[in-house]
Amino acid sequence: MAASALAAGVAGCNLVTGSSDLVLGSDGEGAGSGTGGSGNTGTGGTGNTGTGGTGNNGTGGTGQGGQAPGCPPCGANEHCESSTLSCVCDPGFLDQGGVCTPAPVGDPTTHTQQEVCDKWNTGHVVTSPSPLVTSGADCDAGSLVQAALDDTLVRINMFRWLLGLGPTSDDPGLNANAQLCANLESWWAWPPGESPHFPPSSSKCYTATGGATAGQSNIAWGSGHPAQAIDQFMEDGGNETTMGHRRWILNPPLGPVGIGYWEGGGQYGNAECLAVFGSSGGGPNPPWVAHPNPGYTPLTMAQWTWTFHGSLSGIPSAQVSMLRVDDNTPLAVTVQTLSQGYGQDCISWRPSGWTPQAGMTYRVTISGLGGGDVVYDVKPVGC
Question: Regarding beta strands 333-336 and 54-55, do their DSSP bridges make them parallel or antiparallel, or are they unpaired?
């Protein structure tokens, strides 16, 4: 049976013990992989230009230079947006609890459209078409060539950069453990009532190390390459009640990771184990991150499930509303309350009756948080 045919039947392995969910992809390609999706290339929405009045900095325009008729007075670091006749934060500032605060260094709203597309496209380059070195024996886990490890880290760190997070690294010992896990999982036979995160010792190619690593890893099948599995984890199709794979990869202190991939047998031909419980990484640790990221974002990411993660109180039960800024149209969303225990607290939602388009600006408001509402704009672009 093809991987896509079985995916719906096995994708609901949701463990609250910290182990993530299951992901299947078509043999030879990771779900969501590619160079940036489809859609017309856009500029991420239009700027907000006022037509009325004069000001200290000139005529027309926004901010201190003038406001559109009907705009309310705006506070510090704000300007009136002509399409919605509301006050929004100036570029370089974020709305948190109704106050426009300076965006931290590396914040995704500071990325240009060109930077985002360059990162997306270079992040999807595969330099190692033959990633595995092995004798060919069923239970020889082998090892990955350095280029395959590098490709996988580049892909992980591309997604993390887009959200304003720091890079992670791998560890040779964790890689070796994950390789044993991947060999074991590639042969996994899907016995009823058993979880691949806790394989019994009777499993083909079982080792104690491989079995233990399965309980600490994101696991995917059918990607065709270790880097391609990262897109599977990030899209996280079929795991609507946890979004666990994505949440582990976007955990701010993630690192180091263990990268294991084995191909040559089993129902789907290959499997990946990505050990994700390391939490000693450096870099920014913002109070929240969002997928797709604020600012310019690849259209492909905007077409996946939307998530909001962080350390702010109230996230699991928060309310979500969206507005298409370009024509001031409220947009319906379907919110999914998630099981917690996978990286940071998180809530997810999907568009209801509409599809994100390149060149538009979508405003997200997360309310019901302990520190006040969080408001941010997402600008999908075709890369």
Answer: unpaired
Among 128, 121, 162, residue whose Cα is nearest residue 147: 128
In angstroms, the CA 53 to CA 61 distance is 9
Q: What CA–CA distance (Å, rounded) separates 125 from 117?
A: 13
143-164 average pLDDT score = 96
Output the pLDDT for position 206: 98
Contact 259, 149 (CB under 8 A): yes
CB 280 within 8 A of CB 362: no
What tokens appear for 190 in the block? 């899907």
Task: Give the integer Cα–Cα distance in Å for 204 and 266.
Answer: 10
Encode pLDDT of 343-370 as tens digits.
Answer: 999 999 999 999 999 999 999 999 999 9
Structure tokens at 113: 């459209």
Q: Distance (Å, rounded) from C-alpha 346 to C-alpha 340?
A: 7
Q: What angle do CA 217, 234, 149 make, to 5 degrees?
A: 60
The CA distance from 243 to 346, in Å, is 9
Determine whether 280 is exposed, middle or buried from the number of CB atoms within 10 Å of its CB (0-12, 13-18, 19+): exposed
Residue 35 three-state SS: coil
CB 236 within 8 A of CB 12: no
Cβ proximity of 343 and 77 under 8 Å:
no
The CA distance from 382 to 359, in Å, is 8
Do 95 and 107 contact (CB within 8 A), yes or no? no
Residue 99 has pLDDT above 60, yes or no: yes
Q: What tokens appear for 4 in the block?
A: 């896509």
Q: Which residue has the tokens 């600012």?
A: 295
Give the amino acid at 271: A
| Cα separation, 62 vs 151, whole angstroms | 44
Asked if 294 and 377 count as a contact pair (C-beta separation under 8 A), the reply is: yes
